[in-house]
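Weekly puzzle thread! Below is a chain. First person to post its structure in token form gets bragging rights.
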Amino acid sequence: MSELPILMYHSIGGPMPERLAELSVAPARLREHLDTLLGAGYRLLGLDAARAAHARGEAVVALTFDDGYPDFLEAALPVLEEVGAGATLYVPTRHLGGTTTWLPDARLPLMDEDAVVAASRRPGIEIGSHAARHVPLDVLRRRDLQEEVAESAAVLLDLLGAPATGFCYPHGYHSAPVRRAVRAAGFTHACAIGHRVSPAGEDAYALSRLLAAAADDGATLLARVEGRTVPQIGRAHV
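Winning reply:
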């Protein structure tokens, strides 16, 4: 089976600390990205749907959005719906309605539970877990790790009325015990970062993604998706 490109976004046009400016992609830039990928013949789907389409041999790019910033509803969704794209939104469940406590230089607002439910009802939008708290999971004690992952699964089940299938490791960090805990909680796949296209046969609980950065024009992003540029290195982990 061929490689599966999985793109990683965060904020769409919202504020970010200067050191993380590449994580805030303007709505017009997002539209450029999506138009370029669609023009190259790719379907644009949430990761669960993309994995199924990829298994059928379709040309597909998965779109993922981390953290749950309010601009997902306000700025990203209008663009996604204009072009008929789906996406997966990963939310840290204990932070819903709160702020980005994991950013020492910014306390940015996050979606609340009602906003997450509203997003889940839009066509093609999948909701996944970004753990309960946005903390590195690979350094937690086993019991704390299991509780962290299970709590997020339970909250999303209660909110959405159905189990969430996808998980995203906060900061991208994972280990064998973390992957086992995610699997045991009922998730069917999980994203790391990796800064590369997800290769054929990659562990479903350690899927690699490509950062779609604010400065990337459509042609640059397409070249990265199609493996015509060197892998990304040294990019932000939040």
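Puzzle host: Confirmed. Bonus trivia for everyone else. The mean pLDDT is 95.
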